[in-house]
Design a protein that fits this description.
Largest sheet: 5 strands, mixed
CATH class: Alpha Beta
Family: Belongs to the peptidase C48 family.
Pfam family, one: Peptidase_C48
Helix content: 25-40%
Number of helices: 5
Number of strands: 5
Structural class: alpha/beta
Shape: elongated
CATH architecture: 2-Layer Sandwich
Protein name: Ubiquitin-like protease family profile domain-containing protein
Radius of gyration: 21 Å
InterPro entries: Papain-like_cys_pep_sf, Peptidase_C48_C
Distance between the termini: 59 Å
GO molecular function, one term: cysteine-type peptidase activity
CATH superfamily: Ubiquitin-related
Mean pLDDT: 85
Strand content: 15-25%
Length: about 140
């Protein structure tokens, strides 16, 4: 059974309406209004989740409304794009969260790190390529 209080603590923004490449050539103002409207309609939420596609993969902003901390999660470990920061900051100026008590209008951005394997070396890639070529060669020779 789902706890109604728990569900109300979280709100999500439609990623196609805020991503830079989601709505074609939508302006920063129109995309920030989508976030501002979500802030207004989810005024009791502790976290607003903003999935965003800067053009090549998905990232996530988890905005903690009480502390005004924007946790930025990116598996490629990039910094938040200027476009993303601008639309989130603009949205918070339009409609600051009701839970936030101070006059601070822009969040503190925190990049959340991932501690997995960063990338493969050329030697590791070459090893996989060699094994793949050997396997494909064996399959071809065995089917003739």
């Amino acid at each position: 059974m789902v706890d109604a209080k728990m569900v109300g603590r979280f709100a999500f923004v439609n990623p196609t309406l805020v991503s830079k490449f989601g709505m074609g050539e939508a302006s920063k103002e129109s995309r920030s209004k989508v976030i501002a409207n979500r802030l207004m309609n989810a005024n009791h939420a502790d976290f607003i989740f903003i999935p965003y596609n800067p053009g090549y993969h998905w990232v996530l902003v988890a905005l903690e409304t009480r502390t005004m901390i924007a946790y930025y999660l990116d598996s490629l470990q990039n910094q938040p794009s200027d476009d993303l920061k601008e639309i989130v900051n603009m949205a918070l100026r339009i409609h600051p969260p009701q839970k936030h008590k101070s006059s601070k209008r822009e969040p503190t951005w925190v990049v959340v790190g991932f501690h997995g394997k960063k990338s493969y070396s050329k030697d590791e890639l070459n090893e996989v390529r060699s094994k793949w070529v050997m396997l494909v060669t064996q399959l071809i020779l065995s089917s003739v």
